Amino acid sequence: MPAPQPPVTPDRPAHQDGLPAAPESPDSTTARAKGRPRSAAADRAILDATREALAELGWGGLTMGHVATRAKVAKTTLYRRWPSKNELVVDAVASLFDELVMPDLGSLRADIEAVVSQFAALLARPETQAALLALFAEGTRDPQLRRRIREAIVDPQKRLVRQGRAAAQARGELAPDCDETAACEEVDIIFDTIAGTVEHRVLVSGEPITAEWTRRFTTLLLGPFPSLVP
Amino acid sequence: MPAPQPPVTPDRPAHQDGLPAAPESPDSTTARAKGRPRSAAADRAILDATREALAELGWGGLTMGHVATRAKVAKTTLYRRWPSKNELVVDAVASLFDELVMPDLGSLRADIEAVVSQFAALLARPETQAALLALFAEGTRDPQLRRRIREAIVDPQKRLVRQGRAAAQARGELAPDCDETAACEEVDIIFDTIAGTVEHRVLVSGEPITAEWTRRFTTLLLGPFPSLVP
DNA sequence: CTGCTTTCGCTACGACTCGTAGCGTAACTG
DNA sequence: CAGTTACGCTACGAGTCGTAGCGAAAGCAG
Known about the structure:
The first copy, chain A, is mainly alpha-helical. Chain A contains 9 helices and no strands.
């Protein structure tokens, strides 16, 4: 790989933000493009092809040429939208994490177990397995990529922890926050623990997440609150 | 990358085990080689060059050609010893984890905090950062590589958890094991939690491991044993 | 010392990927 | 209609990969 070029885009100022802005909302505030609009169908085809190729070939086998061929798109079209494989995969994988939701099942334990199960199911998918750790690895070298990963993938999950906490506080299971920053740090620590542990179990140890394991792990998480451990 | 070739080695039956067997124990059970012995100095030079290049260029920038040049060794010599970049990096990085030790400071809390600090320091090093997640990522696709990673890197750390548990049981802080398999599963879950959480904090969230964070995290781990939380 | 065996460094090779440039054409706007 | 932009296609130089072939060097048995 050559040096990480500054995000120069020959055709357009590049999307630079989250998902590529598909020109489908004509009355949006975005300046109406003048020439031929970018094909939204091509965007979808590219992202789908990326996910499929990721599941089949893995991160190392994924090639911009492959994606272009599979999406029935010229390689140059690919590079007009995404400057590198990393950014492409972030966008292709980010949407997979949208399926994670906080259920509010009536107890903190049940909520945690449900989220862990959802996350485990997501990590069991081949596309996710092939992409997630490789993206994280690239992120350790490229701060800008890490920022994109945080915004597109990590932070949306942190929201789940906050929702679960809030629900538990509304139920009276948890004491309401006294210090704002302390609450923030607690959210961070809980999040890193859940995400890191499940990822390590599935992707590194390579062992499945069973209901029994989820029960034990949740018990560990609830340790500081013995009243919630039946 | 082409298909993951079976480990064919043209010159010798390949090392196939842990570290390359340096021919330094003449009365070992290994059949005494007849021809010119492999240079042990070359092995050390290659592994050192790999760690240096890893710290400078990262995983993606690491090239077999670079390593060979930096180690003042022909590229063919590299391929005679390690069939691919993955295996090379496993051996180059594995020794870094030897510095992790279980201190036995007199209390379970102190022991845990010490190990977490050591692990955090290890993860702060550029070689480790560049290699660990990338290796894990490749391991999700190549079961054989995953086995090598487990044997060379992951399992030695699991030993720390067992030692810490044993010490705490000897001190009377923890109840002795009743069920063998349950104890094993508990070791697994503790290990995945510590390793996964610290890795996620450092490598994904990209935030440092402070003494305060370590204290909070240890408190979370000790949650099920409130008597140990001062 | 002389053969035998194995590794060494070196060069070269075909296959592949990368990211870019140039071109003519297609699509949409005013 | 003209103007603007995206599109598909082809081609390119640079770089990496893993292997093959060669002569030379290093160790060991006789």
